[in-house]
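ok so I'm stuck.
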Amino acid sequence: MLASLCLGSFAGIATTVATWLLTRGTLVLHHPFDPAVMRHQILDHQCGVVVLPGSLAVRCAEAGMFRGSAVGKVMAVWRAPERLATCPPWPSAGAGVGSNPNPSPALVDVTVFGETGLFAAMRGADGKHLGIKPGAPQRAADKAPVLIEAARTLAGTLALRGPMVPLQPFPGAAESEPRQGGDAYGFVDTGYPCRFAPGSGTLVVTGPPAGLVSVGGYRFVLSKLQDAVSRLEPGAMIAAFPDGLTGQRIAGVAAKRDEMQEALAGLGHSPLVVDGFRQRRVAEGARSAA
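replied:
not stuck anymore, here's the structure
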């Protein structure tokens, strides 16, 4: 199997390391993202499974990434669960992808909620994602343990519980009872707003948690980052933007960029936050216009 996720996050460990050890297969790592290198790795190592960021799965298939290879299954990992609702359909196994007439591999959507938990589900026959089924969880096999269960809280957010879910919610999570009946003990509010899909009754995530930034599985409270930056330099700003590989990315603006980076690093802030103030390349057209 070939994986393009960082192994230092919950999503990377669960989808890559755990799967590799349980299947006793061969693990090939790819530092994202070079399509030509990945294509060679898939062919040279005869990879049967590929783990990709969810937003890149269909694009890779349309570009012929899996053409003529041994890939039979693609695991699309969604670090930003709200994007799954608007993702394009995946052709059923045996059908071509876009202009590529070769059969497409099966697709598994892995929806990740930070370090709280994740869901994995095979795409339906129509190529659309199945959503998250609330209520009594379905076991993978008889007597198999139930690892995770979902519910919608009265506040309209997604709550999870199970052996793989920590009992303590992340900072700032709203504490509210799940809407479904039964014992509410053990449910953790992820903070992700969700709704019931008409007809199917499944849960669809509609947005990210308010005030939280998720970069490659690492979460930050945006207001605390803004306070820290403004104390170091009045007028400096920091914001989060969508990113296809990591879910979101951090970018900051400061008059004294180098000093800001040194100060944040000295205070023990994450390298992801410090790197948000790095010098960025300016497009050639922008330089000409300036």
